[in-house]
Write a structure and sequence with these properties.
The protein is mostly helical. The chain contains nine helices and no strands. The longest helix is centred in the last third of the chain and has 31 residues.
Length: about 200
């Protein structure tokens, strides 16, 4: 999710964070399970478009949800086409596109604090088996923050290669991005440990 919360009073804005997260999970699982042909994605894509309209999300903000991952979706699609076939490539990339877009819609219409509160409440019963709901919420925060960081890392690698007049082979993009992500993860882990989070 690459979203920044967009204040508003639409139906989606007023819907509770927990309900939205649950509905997103149901939609993503349904698309993953039910899509057998590329054209099966059309109703899901139409639904996502309608939801963005209901949420009164500007077109630019909607495009910003998928634009950073377009190169990755293209790479995944090409790989699927090579190892499977065209239909598999369309199904996989289409499903990922729907999942990213609908997750972005939730982020656009829901404050992060509300999402964390919903997750913490839902995970409350796990206290009885020794799992901390607060740690689950922390993982969610880090995940939300990590996605735009990875997108920024990929963009920096791409721009650096373009500036040098180099090509864009998948390996040349993925390897520096993964190494940068691992470095960031190490630094984040050290910072959390220094604050006693792993106690």
């Amino acid at each position: 999710m690459f979203a920044t919360y967009q204040p508003g009073d639409s139906v989606l804005h007023r819907l509770s964070a927990g309900v939205k997260i649950l509905l997103v999970a149901v939609l993503i699982v349904s698309v993953t399970v039910l899509v057998r042909e590329p054209w099966h994605l059309l109703p899901a894509i139409a639904l996502v478009v309608v939801l963005y309209l209901v949420g009164r999300i500007p077109a630019r903000a909607a495009w910003d949800q998928v634009r950073p991952v377009v190169p990755m979706l293209v790479a995944i699609g090409v790989l699927q086409w090579i190892v499977a076939d065209r239909d598999a490539a369309l199904r996989v990339t289409g499903t990922l596109l729907v999942a990213i877009a609908v997750a972005g819609l939730v982020a656009l219409t829901t404050r992060v604090s509300d999402m964390l509160d919903a997750v913490t409440r839902a995970a409350g019963p796990l206290r009885h088996v020794g799992v901390s709901p607060d740690r689950i919420a922390l993982v969610l925060v880090l995940t939300i923050r990590a996605i735009p960081l990875l997108a920024r890392q990929l963009r920096q690698v791409t721009e650096a290669r373009k500036a040098r007049g180099l090509g864009m082979p998948i390996r040349a993009l993925v390897v520096p991005t993964v190494l940068g992500a691992l470095t960031t993860a190490d630094q984040l882990g050290d910072a959390l440990a220094a604050r006693g989070v792993d106690d």
